[in-house]
Amino acid sequence: MTQPFHPSLAPLAQRWSTFLDKVRARVQEIEGEATAAYADVIASDAVDGTALSGVSSALKARLLALAAKVDDSWSTIDAEIDKIDLDDGRATGWFRGAQLVLKAQFARWLERETERIIVKGEADAGRALHAVALQEVGQQVPCGHCGVPLDRPLWHQTVNVTCPHCKAVVTLTPGTASAMFTGGAGAINLAREEAFGAWCAMQDAEVAWHKLRHKTLDDLARWEGANRAYWQTFADAMGRLHPGWTPKHVADEVTGKMSWLLQTTSVDDRTVRENNHAGIAAVAAGDPNAVIAWVQRQRDPEDAGEMLITAALERGWGQHATWVAQLVGPIVAGDEPGWAAEKIDELTYYQATRGD
Amino acid sequence: MTVDRFALVGALTEELGKLFDDALLVEPAGGVNDAWAKVLAKYGVAPIGAAEREATRARLNLARGALPAEVAACAHAIANHFASAVGDPRLVDAAAAVWKATEGKYLEHATWRPKSMFAFAVQTAKQAKSKGWQRPPGGYVIRCSQCGGPRLAEELACQFCGKDKLGT
Known about the structure:
The structure holds 2 protein chains of 2 kinds. Chain A is built from 13 helices and 4 strands. By secondary structure, chain A is mainly alpha-helical. In chain A, the strands form 2 sheets. Chain A has a two-stranded antiparallel ribbon with strand order 1-2. In chain A, strands 3-4 form a two-stranded antiparallel sheet. In chain A, a hairpin with a 6-residue loop joins strand 1 and strand 2. In chain A, helix 1 (10-44) runs parallel beside helix 3 and helix 6 packs antiparallel against helix 7 (217-241). Chain A is elongated. Chain B folds into 2 domains: 3-111, no CATH class; 139-168, no CATH class. Chain B has helices at residues 3-24, 34-43, 50-60, 68-86, 90-111, 119-128, and one strand spanning 138-141. Chain A binds chain B through residues 30, 33-34, 36-37, 40-41, 44-45, 47-48, 50-55, 57-59, 61-62, 136, 139, 141-145, 150, 152, 155, 160-161, 166-178, and chain B through 116-118, 120-122, 124-126, 128-129, 131, 133-142, 150-154.
Protein backbone atom coordinates (compact mmCIF):
# COMPACT_ATOMS: atom_id res chain seq x y z
CA MET A 1 0.00 0.00 0.00
CA THR A 2 1.38 3.40 -0.95
CA GLN A 3 1.38 6.03 1.76
CA PRO A 4 2.06 9.73 1.16
CA PHE A 5 5.27 10.58 2.98
CA HIS A 6 5.73 13.42 5.39
CA PRO A 7 7.36 16.43 3.63
CA SER A 8 10.31 16.33 6.01
CA LEU A 9 11.25 12.93 4.57
CA ALA A 10 11.30 14.10 0.95
CA PRO A 11 14.94 15.30 0.95
CA LEU A 12 16.07 11.88 2.20
CA ALA A 13 14.03 10.13 -0.49
CA GLN A 14 15.61 12.43 -3.07
CA ARG A 15 19.13 11.75 -1.76
CA TRP A 16 18.60 8.01 -1.77
CA SER A 17 17.13 8.02 -5.25
CA THR A 18 19.92 10.26 -6.61
CA PHE A 19 22.55 8.04 -5.04
CA LEU A 20 21.06 4.90 -6.59
CA ASP A 21 20.93 6.62 -9.99
CA LYS A 22 24.62 7.48 -9.66
CA VAL A 23 25.49 3.88 -8.86
CA ARG A 24 23.46 2.77 -11.88
CA ALA A 25 25.44 5.16 -14.06
CA ARG A 26 28.68 3.79 -12.60
CA VAL A 27 27.58 0.25 -13.40
CA GLN A 28 27.08 1.31 -17.02
CA GLU A 29 30.59 2.77 -17.11
CA ILE A 30 31.99 -0.41 -15.63
CA GLU A 31 30.13 -2.43 -18.25
CA GLY A 32 31.82 -0.38 -20.95
CA GLU A 33 35.24 -1.08 -19.44
CA ALA A 34 34.42 -4.76 -19.00
CA THR A 35 33.23 -5.10 -22.60
CA ALA A 36 36.51 -3.61 -23.81
CA ALA A 37 38.50 -5.89 -21.48
CA TYR A 38 36.66 -9.02 -22.65
CA ALA A 39 37.30 -7.98 -26.26
CA ASP A 40 40.99 -7.38 -25.48
CA VAL A 41 41.40 -10.74 -23.78
CA ILE A 42 39.57 -12.62 -26.54
CA ALA A 43 41.62 -10.88 -29.23
CA SER A 44 44.84 -11.77 -27.39
CA ASP A 45 44.06 -15.43 -26.91
CA ALA A 46 40.72 -17.08 -27.52
CA VAL A 47 41.83 -20.44 -26.17
CA ASP A 48 43.33 -19.67 -22.77
CA GLY A 49 40.54 -19.06 -20.28
CA THR A 50 42.74 -17.79 -17.45
CA ALA A 51 42.55 -14.13 -18.37
CA LEU A 52 38.85 -14.45 -19.14
CA SER A 53 38.25 -15.59 -15.55
CA GLY A 54 40.38 -12.66 -14.44
CA VAL A 55 38.07 -10.17 -16.18
CA SER A 56 34.97 -11.81 -14.74
CA SER A 57 36.47 -11.92 -11.24
CA ALA A 58 37.54 -8.27 -11.39
CA LEU A 59 34.10 -7.28 -12.62
CA LYS A 60 32.35 -9.28 -9.91
CA ALA A 61 34.62 -7.84 -7.23
CA ARG A 62 33.96 -4.30 -8.45
CA LEU A 63 30.20 -4.75 -8.54
CA LEU A 64 30.20 -6.41 -5.13
CA ALA A 65 32.11 -3.41 -3.83
CA LEU A 66 29.42 -1.16 -5.30
CA ALA A 67 26.76 -3.26 -3.57
CA ALA A 68 28.66 -2.82 -0.30
CA LYS A 69 28.74 0.92 -0.91
CA VAL A 70 24.96 0.89 -1.32
CA ASP A 71 24.67 -0.89 2.04
CA ASP A 72 26.93 1.69 3.69
CA SER A 73 24.98 4.56 2.22
CA TRP A 74 21.73 3.00 3.34
CA SER A 75 23.10 2.88 6.91
CA THR A 76 23.66 6.63 6.71
CA ILE A 77 20.18 7.30 5.34
CA ASP A 78 18.68 4.93 7.91
CA ALA A 79 20.42 6.76 10.76
CA GLU A 80 19.06 10.04 9.45
CA ILE A 81 15.55 8.62 9.28
CA ASP A 82 15.93 7.74 12.98
CA LYS A 83 16.72 11.34 13.78
CA ILE A 84 13.44 12.61 12.31
CA ASP A 85 10.83 12.87 15.02
CA LEU A 86 7.29 12.93 13.66
CA ASP A 87 3.95 13.02 15.47
CA ASP A 88 2.81 9.93 13.60
CA GLY A 89 5.15 7.22 14.88
CA ARG A 90 4.39 5.04 11.86
CA ALA A 91 5.26 7.66 9.27
CA THR A 92 8.96 6.91 9.36
CA GLY A 93 8.18 3.17 9.33
CA TRP A 94 6.23 3.48 6.08
CA PHE A 95 8.98 5.59 4.63
CA ARG A 96 11.80 3.27 5.72
CA GLY A 97 9.89 0.29 4.28
CA ALA A 98 9.46 2.01 0.92
CA GLN A 99 13.14 2.96 0.73
CA LEU A 100 14.15 -0.57 1.71
CA VAL A 101 12.02 -1.90 -1.14
CA LEU A 102 13.96 0.37 -3.51
CA LYS A 103 17.19 -0.94 -2.02
CA ALA A 104 16.12 -4.56 -2.46
CA GLN A 105 15.05 -3.89 -6.06
CA PHE A 106 18.37 -2.24 -6.71
CA ALA A 107 20.29 -5.21 -5.24
CA ARG A 108 18.39 -7.59 -7.54
CA TRP A 109 19.00 -5.33 -10.53
CA LEU A 110 22.71 -5.23 -9.72
CA GLU A 111 22.85 -9.00 -9.37
CA ARG A 112 21.14 -9.39 -12.73
CA GLU A 113 23.38 -6.85 -14.42
CA THR A 114 26.46 -8.62 -13.03
CA GLU A 115 25.23 -11.92 -14.42
CA ARG A 116 24.24 -10.36 -17.76
CA ILE A 117 27.60 -8.68 -18.34
CA ILE A 118 29.58 -11.77 -17.35
CA VAL A 119 27.39 -14.14 -19.36
CA LYS A 120 27.72 -11.94 -22.46
CA GLY A 121 31.49 -11.52 -22.12
CA GLU A 122 32.12 -15.20 -21.48
CA ALA A 123 29.77 -16.22 -24.29
CA ASP A 124 31.70 -13.99 -26.68
CA ALA A 125 34.82 -15.84 -25.56
CA GLY A 126 32.99 -19.15 -26.05
CA ARG A 127 32.14 -18.18 -29.64
CA ALA A 128 35.75 -17.22 -30.37
CA LEU A 129 36.96 -20.48 -28.86
CA HIS A 130 34.38 -22.43 -30.85
CA ALA A 131 35.62 -20.82 -34.06
CA VAL A 132 39.18 -22.00 -33.29
CA ALA A 133 37.91 -25.45 -32.32
CA LEU A 134 36.02 -25.78 -35.61
CA GLN A 135 39.30 -25.27 -37.48
CA GLU A 136 40.57 -28.42 -35.77
CA VAL A 137 37.52 -30.55 -36.52
CA GLY A 138 38.47 -31.90 -39.93
CA GLN A 139 42.19 -32.13 -39.34
CA GLN A 140 43.80 -35.54 -40.01
CA VAL A 141 46.57 -36.82 -37.78
CA PRO A 142 49.50 -38.99 -38.96
CA CYS A 143 49.74 -42.49 -37.52
CA GLY A 144 52.33 -42.45 -34.75
CA HIS A 145 53.86 -45.66 -36.16
CA CYS A 146 53.78 -45.50 -39.98
CA GLY A 147 52.79 -41.89 -40.65
CA VAL A 148 49.68 -42.57 -42.74
CA PRO A 149 47.12 -39.72 -42.26
CA LEU A 150 44.23 -40.82 -40.12
CA ASP A 151 40.69 -39.43 -39.85
CA ARG A 152 39.56 -38.67 -36.33
CA PRO A 153 36.12 -40.13 -35.53
CA LEU A 154 35.69 -37.76 -32.57
CA TRP A 155 37.03 -34.22 -32.59
CA HIS A 156 36.38 -33.34 -28.97
CA GLN A 157 37.90 -36.20 -26.98
CA THR A 158 40.72 -38.73 -26.95
CA VAL A 159 39.97 -41.89 -28.90
CA ASN A 160 41.92 -45.01 -29.98
CA VAL A 161 41.95 -45.81 -33.69
CA THR A 162 43.57 -48.78 -35.42
CA CYS A 163 45.73 -47.62 -38.33
CA PRO A 164 44.36 -49.26 -41.53
CA HIS A 165 47.88 -49.45 -42.90
CA CYS A 166 50.10 -50.75 -40.09
CA LYS A 167 47.41 -51.92 -37.64
CA ALA A 168 48.99 -50.02 -34.73
CA VAL A 169 46.55 -48.67 -32.15
CA VAL A 170 46.91 -44.91 -32.35
CA THR A 171 45.67 -42.74 -29.51
CA LEU A 172 44.25 -39.60 -31.09
CA THR A 173 44.03 -36.51 -28.93
CA PRO A 174 41.91 -33.42 -29.61
CA GLY A 175 43.44 -30.02 -30.22
CA THR A 176 43.63 -27.67 -27.29
CA ALA A 177 40.79 -25.46 -28.56
CA SER A 178 38.46 -28.44 -29.01
CA ALA A 179 39.35 -29.79 -25.59
CA MET A 180 38.89 -26.39 -24.01
CA PHE A 181 35.55 -25.82 -25.74
CA THR A 182 34.04 -29.13 -24.70
CA GLY A 183 35.99 -29.97 -21.58
CA GLY A 184 36.45 -26.41 -20.36
CA ALA A 185 33.92 -23.65 -20.11
CA GLY A 186 33.40 -22.79 -23.81
CA ALA A 187 30.20 -24.75 -24.40
CA ILE A 188 29.02 -24.01 -20.87
CA ASN A 189 29.38 -20.27 -21.44
CA LEU A 190 27.32 -20.42 -24.63
CA ALA A 191 24.67 -22.54 -22.90
CA ARG A 192 24.49 -20.05 -20.04
CA GLU A 193 23.87 -17.31 -22.57
CA GLU A 194 21.05 -19.29 -24.18
CA ALA A 195 19.55 -19.91 -20.76
CA PHE A 196 19.91 -16.33 -19.51
CA GLY A 197 16.20 -15.54 -19.96
CA ALA A 198 15.33 -18.62 -17.91
CA TRP A 199 17.93 -17.56 -15.33
CA CYS A 200 16.19 -14.19 -14.97
CA ALA A 201 12.84 -15.94 -14.57
CA MET A 202 14.41 -18.18 -11.93
CA GLN A 203 15.76 -15.12 -10.11
CA ASP A 204 12.26 -13.57 -10.13
CA ALA A 205 10.80 -16.82 -8.87
CA GLU A 206 13.39 -16.98 -6.11
CA VAL A 207 12.47 -13.49 -4.95
CA ALA A 208 8.77 -14.38 -4.98
CA TRP A 209 9.49 -17.61 -3.11
CA HIS A 210 11.49 -15.96 -0.35
CA LYS A 211 9.01 -13.10 0.02
CA LEU A 212 6.26 -15.48 1.06
CA ARG A 213 6.10 -16.16 4.79
CA HIS A 214 3.26 -18.62 4.27
CA LYS A 215 4.07 -20.90 1.39
CA THR A 216 1.78 -23.37 -0.34
CA LEU A 217 2.31 -26.36 -2.59
CA ASP A 218 1.45 -24.13 -5.57
CA ASP A 219 4.21 -21.71 -4.54
CA LEU A 220 6.59 -24.63 -4.25
CA ALA A 221 5.55 -25.88 -7.68
CA ARG A 222 6.29 -22.47 -9.20
CA TRP A 223 9.71 -22.30 -7.54
CA GLU A 224 10.55 -25.85 -8.62
CA GLY A 225 9.22 -25.11 -12.10
CA ALA A 226 11.45 -22.07 -12.53
CA ASN A 227 14.48 -24.07 -11.42
CA ARG A 228 13.62 -26.93 -13.72
CA ALA A 229 12.98 -24.56 -16.65
CA TYR A 230 16.40 -23.01 -16.20
CA TRP A 231 18.31 -26.27 -15.96
CA GLN A 232 16.31 -27.79 -18.82
CA THR A 233 17.09 -24.80 -21.06
CA PHE A 234 20.74 -24.95 -20.06
CA ALA A 235 21.02 -28.71 -20.59
CA ASP A 236 19.16 -28.59 -23.93
CA ALA A 237 21.62 -25.94 -25.10
CA MET A 238 24.53 -28.12 -23.96
CA GLY A 239 22.99 -30.98 -25.92
CA ARG A 240 23.15 -28.87 -29.05
CA LEU A 241 26.60 -27.40 -28.39
CA HIS A 242 28.54 -30.37 -27.03
CA PRO A 243 28.97 -33.40 -29.29
CA GLY A 244 29.28 -35.68 -26.27
CA TRP A 245 25.97 -34.72 -24.69
CA THR A 246 23.35 -37.34 -25.54
CA PRO A 247 19.64 -37.00 -24.63
CA LYS A 248 20.39 -39.17 -21.57
CA HIS A 249 23.21 -36.84 -20.57
CA VAL A 250 20.81 -33.88 -20.87
CA ALA A 251 18.18 -35.63 -18.74
CA ASP A 252 20.78 -36.66 -16.15
CA GLU A 253 22.03 -33.09 -15.93
CA VAL A 254 18.55 -31.79 -15.12
CA THR A 255 17.99 -34.58 -12.61
CA GLY A 256 21.31 -33.90 -10.95
CA LYS A 257 20.87 -30.16 -10.76
CA MET A 258 17.34 -30.51 -9.38
CA SER A 259 18.22 -33.14 -6.81
CA TRP A 260 19.33 -30.81 -4.05
CA LEU A 261 16.17 -28.72 -4.27
CA LEU A 262 13.96 -31.78 -4.46
CA GLN A 263 15.65 -33.42 -1.50
CA THR A 264 15.65 -30.35 0.75
CA THR A 265 13.35 -27.39 0.00
CA SER A 266 10.70 -29.55 -1.65
CA VAL A 267 10.32 -31.82 1.36
CA ASP A 268 10.91 -29.28 4.14
CA ASP A 269 7.75 -28.19 5.97
CA ARG A 270 5.66 -30.30 3.63
CA THR A 271 2.84 -30.73 6.15
CA VAL A 272 2.70 -27.01 6.90
CA ARG A 273 2.60 -26.17 3.21
CA GLU A 274 -0.16 -28.69 2.56
CA ASN A 275 -2.19 -27.13 5.36
CA ASN A 276 -1.46 -23.59 4.14
CA HIS A 277 -2.41 -24.73 0.66
CA ALA A 278 -5.87 -25.80 1.80
CA GLY A 279 -6.53 -22.55 3.67
CA ILE A 280 -5.17 -20.20 1.03
CA ALA A 281 -6.93 -22.12 -1.75
CA ALA A 282 -10.20 -21.57 0.12
CA VAL A 283 -9.41 -17.82 0.27
CA ALA A 284 -8.52 -17.72 -3.41
CA ALA A 285 -11.77 -19.51 -4.27
CA GLY A 286 -13.75 -16.97 -2.21
CA ASP A 287 -15.54 -19.82 -0.41
CA PRO A 288 -16.57 -18.54 3.04
CA ASN A 289 -17.63 -21.93 4.38
CA ALA A 290 -14.32 -23.50 3.39
CA VAL A 291 -12.35 -20.61 4.96
CA ILE A 292 -14.27 -20.83 8.24
CA ALA A 293 -14.02 -24.61 8.32
CA TRP A 294 -10.27 -24.44 7.73
CA VAL A 295 -9.76 -21.82 10.47
CA GLN A 296 -11.82 -23.85 12.93
CA ARG A 297 -9.77 -26.96 12.22
CA GLN A 298 -6.56 -25.26 13.32
CA ARG A 299 -5.11 -25.63 16.81
CA ASP A 300 -5.02 -21.83 17.28
CA PRO A 301 -7.82 -20.33 15.15
CA GLU A 302 -6.87 -16.71 15.85
CA ASP A 303 -3.32 -17.32 14.75
CA ALA A 304 -4.61 -19.20 11.70
CA GLY A 305 -6.91 -16.30 10.83
CA GLU A 306 -3.96 -13.90 11.00
CA MET A 307 -1.97 -16.23 8.83
CA LEU A 308 -4.65 -16.20 6.12
CA ILE A 309 -4.83 -12.40 6.21
CA THR A 310 -1.03 -12.13 5.97
CA ALA A 311 -0.92 -14.71 3.20
CA ALA A 312 -3.50 -12.75 1.22
CA LEU A 313 -1.65 -9.46 1.76
CA GLU A 314 1.73 -10.83 0.75
CA ARG A 315 0.19 -12.12 -2.48
CA GLY A 316 -1.21 -8.67 -3.19
CA TRP A 317 -4.81 -9.80 -2.55
CA GLY A 318 -5.83 -6.74 -0.53
CA GLN A 319 -9.58 -7.23 -0.95
CA HIS A 320 -9.34 -10.90 -0.03
CA ALA A 321 -7.45 -9.94 3.14
CA THR A 322 -10.24 -7.58 4.25
CA TRP A 323 -12.85 -10.18 3.41
CA VAL A 324 -11.02 -12.86 5.42
CA ALA A 325 -10.62 -10.51 8.39
CA GLN A 326 -14.35 -9.74 8.40
CA LEU A 327 -15.16 -13.42 7.99
CA VAL A 328 -12.98 -14.87 10.71
CA GLY A 329 -13.17 -11.92 13.15
CA PRO A 330 -16.47 -12.94 14.74
CA ILE A 331 -15.23 -16.54 15.07
CA VAL A 332 -11.77 -16.01 16.53
CA ALA A 333 -12.44 -12.78 18.43
CA GLY A 334 -16.19 -12.51 18.81
CA ASP A 335 -15.93 -10.36 21.91
CA GLU A 336 -13.47 -7.89 20.41
CA PRO A 337 -15.26 -5.33 18.25
CA GLY A 338 -13.05 -3.87 15.56
CA TRP A 339 -10.72 -6.90 15.49
CA ALA A 340 -10.92 -7.14 11.69
CA ALA A 341 -10.06 -3.49 11.05
CA GLU A 342 -7.31 -3.56 13.63
CA LYS A 343 -5.76 -6.70 12.13
CA ILE A 344 -5.87 -5.34 8.62
CA ASP A 345 -4.25 -2.12 9.77
CA GLU A 346 -1.56 -3.91 11.80
CA LEU A 347 -0.72 -6.51 9.18
CA THR A 348 -0.76 -4.04 6.29
CA TYR A 349 1.74 -1.89 8.17
CA TYR A 350 3.89 -4.94 8.89
CA GLN A 351 3.73 -5.93 5.23
CA ALA A 352 4.74 -2.45 4.04
CA THR A 353 7.67 -2.17 6.44
CA ARG A 354 9.24 -5.56 5.76
CA GLY A 355 11.42 -3.90 3.17
CA ASP A 356 11.54 -6.69 0.61
CA MET B 1 70.85 39.31 -8.81
CA THR B 2 69.12 42.03 -6.80
CA VAL B 3 66.30 41.46 -4.33
CA ASP B 4 63.85 42.95 -6.81
CA ARG B 5 64.99 40.54 -9.47
CA PHE B 6 64.56 37.58 -7.10
CA ALA B 7 61.06 38.75 -6.34
CA LEU B 8 60.33 39.14 -10.04
CA VAL B 9 61.53 35.65 -10.93
CA GLY B 10 59.55 34.30 -7.96
CA ALA B 11 56.40 36.03 -9.21
CA LEU B 12 56.98 34.76 -12.75
CA THR B 13 57.46 31.21 -11.50
CA GLU B 14 54.35 31.48 -9.37
CA GLU B 15 52.23 32.70 -12.26
CA LEU B 16 53.56 29.99 -14.55
CA GLY B 17 52.85 27.39 -11.85
CA LYS B 18 49.28 28.62 -11.53
CA LEU B 19 48.91 28.49 -15.30
CA PHE B 20 49.97 24.84 -15.38
CA ASP B 21 47.63 23.98 -12.53
CA ASP B 22 44.72 25.68 -14.30
CA ALA B 23 45.64 24.00 -17.57
CA LEU B 24 45.66 20.53 -16.00
CA LEU B 25 42.19 21.03 -14.57
CA VAL B 26 40.66 21.49 -18.02
CA GLU B 27 38.08 18.84 -18.89
CA PRO B 28 37.20 17.42 -21.31
CA ALA B 29 40.76 16.78 -22.35
CA GLY B 30 42.07 19.27 -24.87
CA GLY B 31 38.87 21.32 -24.63
CA VAL B 32 38.07 24.85 -23.57
CA ASN B 33 35.83 25.04 -20.52
CA ASP B 34 34.70 28.32 -18.98
CA ALA B 35 37.71 28.58 -16.65
CA TRP B 36 40.21 27.93 -19.43
CA ALA B 37 38.42 30.36 -21.77
CA LYS B 38 38.95 33.04 -19.12
CA VAL B 39 42.66 32.17 -18.87
CA LEU B 40 43.04 32.38 -22.66
CA ALA B 41 41.21 35.70 -22.71
CA LYS B 42 43.31 37.04 -19.85
CA TYR B 43 46.54 36.38 -21.77
CA GLY B 44 45.10 37.29 -25.16
CA VAL B 45 45.60 33.84 -26.63
CA ALA B 46 43.25 32.74 -29.41
CA PRO B 47 41.84 29.22 -28.94
CA ILE B 48 43.06 26.65 -31.45
CA GLY B 49 40.55 25.67 -34.15
CA ALA B 50 38.23 22.71 -33.60
CA ALA B 51 39.76 20.39 -36.21
CA GLU B 52 43.34 20.93 -35.07
CA ARG B 53 42.23 20.72 -31.46
CA GLU B 54 40.67 17.29 -31.98
CA ALA B 55 43.63 16.01 -34.00
CA THR B 56 46.12 17.16 -31.37
CA ARG B 57 44.07 15.76 -28.51
CA ALA B 58 43.92 12.38 -30.24
CA ARG B 59 47.60 12.42 -31.23
CA LEU B 60 48.76 13.21 -27.70
CA ASN B 61 46.17 10.86 -26.16
CA LEU B 62 45.28 13.46 -23.55
CA ALA B 63 43.26 12.28 -20.57
CA ARG B 64 42.79 15.79 -19.20
CA GLY B 65 44.19 19.28 -19.47
CA ALA B 66 44.39 22.01 -22.06
CA LEU B 67 46.29 21.61 -25.33
CA PRO B 68 50.04 22.11 -24.71
CA ALA B 69 50.23 24.67 -27.53
CA GLU B 70 47.67 26.87 -25.77
CA VAL B 71 49.54 26.49 -22.47
CA ALA B 72 52.80 27.42 -24.21
CA ALA B 73 51.17 30.49 -25.77
CA CYS B 74 49.91 31.59 -22.36
CA ALA B 75 53.38 31.03 -20.83
CA HIS B 76 54.85 33.12 -23.61
CA ALA B 77 52.32 35.88 -22.95
CA ILE B 78 53.17 35.84 -19.24
CA ALA B 79 56.89 36.12 -20.06
CA ASN B 80 56.24 39.00 -22.44
CA HIS B 81 54.29 40.78 -19.77
CA PHE B 82 57.10 40.41 -17.21
CA ALA B 83 59.76 41.29 -19.78
CA SER B 84 58.04 44.53 -20.73
CA ALA B 85 57.41 45.36 -17.08
CA VAL B 86 61.09 45.18 -16.21
CA GLY B 87 62.47 46.08 -19.63
CA ASP B 88 64.48 42.86 -19.89
CA PRO B 89 63.67 40.80 -23.02
CA ARG B 90 65.79 37.92 -21.69
CA LEU B 91 62.80 36.99 -19.53
CA VAL B 92 61.01 35.80 -22.66
CA ASP B 93 63.79 33.34 -23.35
CA ALA B 94 63.79 32.33 -19.70
CA ALA B 95 60.05 31.60 -19.83
CA ALA B 96 60.49 29.63 -23.04
CA ALA B 97 63.18 27.58 -21.31
CA VAL B 98 60.90 26.97 -18.34
CA TRP B 99 58.10 25.76 -20.63
CA LYS B 100 60.50 23.52 -22.57
CA ALA B 101 61.63 21.94 -19.32
CA THR B 102 58.07 21.59 -18.05
CA GLU B 103 56.26 20.41 -21.18
CA GLY B 104 57.27 16.79 -20.70
CA LYS B 105 56.05 16.79 -17.12
CA TYR B 106 52.83 18.52 -18.17
CA LEU B 107 52.15 15.87 -20.81
CA GLU B 108 52.93 13.14 -18.30
CA HIS B 109 50.22 14.49 -16.00
CA ALA B 110 47.82 15.21 -18.85
CA THR B 111 48.04 11.70 -20.27
CA TRP B 112 48.04 9.75 -16.99
CA ARG B 113 45.12 7.39 -16.59
CA PRO B 114 44.23 5.28 -13.59
CA LYS B 115 44.92 1.60 -14.14
CA SER B 116 41.84 -0.24 -15.25
CA MET B 117 40.41 -2.85 -12.89
CA PHE B 118 40.90 -5.26 -15.78
CA ALA B 119 44.52 -4.35 -16.50
CA PHE B 120 45.90 -7.41 -14.72
CA ALA B 121 43.62 -9.78 -16.65
CA VAL B 122 44.41 -8.18 -19.99
CA GLN B 123 48.13 -8.36 -19.22
CA THR B 124 47.72 -12.03 -18.31
CA ALA B 125 46.09 -12.69 -21.69
CA LYS B 126 48.92 -11.00 -23.53
CA GLN B 127 51.56 -12.96 -21.63
CA ALA B 128 49.72 -16.26 -21.92
CA LYS B 129 49.85 -15.99 -25.68
CA SER B 130 53.58 -16.61 -25.61
CA LYS B 131 53.32 -19.73 -23.46
CA GLY B 132 52.84 -21.94 -26.48
CA TRP B 133 51.10 -24.75 -24.70
CA GLN B 134 48.33 -24.90 -27.25
CA ARG B 135 48.49 -27.91 -29.54
CA PRO B 136 46.73 -29.01 -32.70
CA PRO B 137 45.05 -32.43 -32.76
CA GLY B 138 47.70 -35.13 -32.31
CA GLY B 139 48.22 -38.85 -32.10
CA TYR B 140 50.69 -41.29 -30.63
CA VAL B 141 51.30 -45.02 -30.44
CA ILE B 142 52.18 -46.60 -27.12
CA ARG B 143 55.29 -48.75 -27.45
CA CYS B 144 56.65 -51.64 -25.47
CA SER B 145 59.33 -50.44 -23.07
CA GLN B 146 61.13 -53.79 -23.48
CA CYS B 147 61.28 -54.34 -27.25
CA GLY B 148 59.92 -51.07 -28.71
CA GLY B 149 57.07 -52.81 -30.53
CA PRO B 150 53.90 -50.78 -31.25
CA ARG B 151 50.58 -51.41 -29.58
CA LEU B 152 48.44 -53.58 -31.85
CA ALA B 153 45.34 -54.16 -29.76
CA GLU B 154 43.17 -52.63 -27.06
CA GLU B 155 44.96 -54.87 -24.54
CA LEU B 156 48.21 -53.42 -23.28
CA ALA B 157 50.27 -56.64 -23.47
CA CYS B 158 53.07 -56.58 -26.06
CA GLN B 159 52.31 -58.90 -28.97
CA PHE B 160 55.96 -59.03 -30.00
CA CYS B 161 57.84 -59.93 -26.81
CA GLY B 162 54.99 -60.79 -24.45
CA LYS B 163 55.66 -58.08 -21.86
CA ASP B 164 52.44 -57.71 -19.90
CA LYS B 165 52.24 -53.93 -20.03
CA LEU B 166 53.28 -51.56 -22.78
CA GLY B 167 54.65 -48.14 -22.09
CA THR B 168 56.56 -47.31 -18.97
